[in-house]
Design a protein that fits this description.
The protein contains no helices and 11 strands. The chain is mainly β.
Length: 116
């Protein structure tokens, strides 16, 4: 069964950090480009970061560049998004996305709330 499960979200104060995880099963994880997106209430889903199948070519949205690091552990079929210096505007549901071979898979999301 194909499954993507995000975790690591929660409530954090402004300036704090969180590390999100994306655990996959049923995939040949290393065959897929991994992306993170986020969606705030009342807003469209927004791309956050991308990493290639073997961990190369990480790219970031302007809003997250310099404050986040995308990574992956293909041996454990898991991807990550480390976020630092979090702001209230980062409050959103964060989604993991695997893309490749004409397929596109999404997790259920993990909520990140940045508030004092």
């Amino acid at each position: 069964q194909l499954q993507l499960v995000e975790s690591g979200g929660g409530l954090v104060q402004p300036g704090g950090s969180l590390k999100l995880s994306c655990a996959s099963s049923g995939f040949t994880f290393s065959s897929y480009t991994m992306k993170w997106y986020r969606q705030a209430p009342g807003k469209e889903r927004e791309w956050v970061a991308t990493i290639g199948p073997t961990g190369g070519s990480p790219t970031y949205s302007d809003s997250m560049k310099g404050r986040s690091t995308i990574s992956r552990d293909n041996a454990n079929n898991t991807g990550y998004l480390q976020m630092n210096s979090l702001k209230a505007d980062d409050t959103a549901t964060y989604y993991c996305n695997l893309v490749g071979a004409g397929s596109n898979f999404w997790g259920q999301g993990t909520q990140v709330t940045v508030s004092s």
